[in-house]
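It is time I had a proper look at our fold encoding. Can you supply me with one protein entry, sequence and fold together? It will help me judge whether the discrete encoding reads sensibly. Leave the record below and I will have a look:
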Amino acid sequence: MKGMLSLPFVLVLCLLAGSARAGQISVQFDFRGSSVSLLGGLIQVPPDGSITSASGAVVVNGLGSAAPVSGPAALQGFGMAAAINALTFGNTITGNPSLTQLGGASGTLTAGLSQVLFASPMQIALAGSINCTGPSCAILSLPRALTGTQLLTLAAMPIANLASVGNALINATYAITLGGLTGSLHLVGAEVSRSYSPIPEPHTAGMLAIGLTLLAGWRAARSRR
């Protein structure tokens, strides 16, 4: 059919429509290398117990899985559980505290791709309990059930190697209060996986539609020959 665009040109349009574009990178971290201090440092987990599970994902914008860009970021699905087994001043302290993130914590990945600055504290749900037997449990305000929700201030979260797939690291220390017990959280995370989800742009979707329409027309013309 005279004047009809050639198939190669149509395929070029389709390839342009499917080329790399902006999307979201979700980096999953294993935080079991973290540690928690409670009661002003009287309990250190580990060695006074262990972090039994801890994980979460940092989501940032990017142009590919290894090409993050500064801008909106979030921490999603964060959770941590611990087993406590400590001997302190003649007291035996045990427990199974856990915390679970509620919703997402939004922030901004800085221009140097080296940290996420959070706009507001992260809301968490508490569960489990801290038990105590011994002569000074009451002075330590134990035993204590951990229930309800509270806010955990993260402020700035340092991230290293975010542009290197499989090598992203998080290492940060935060002052915390869990169920009224003061302490600190040394958050250490190692990347275990990542995914990339392109976000179709309006003009890209339009180019794809044009390419497919032209391809259909080319095929129809071929069939009438």
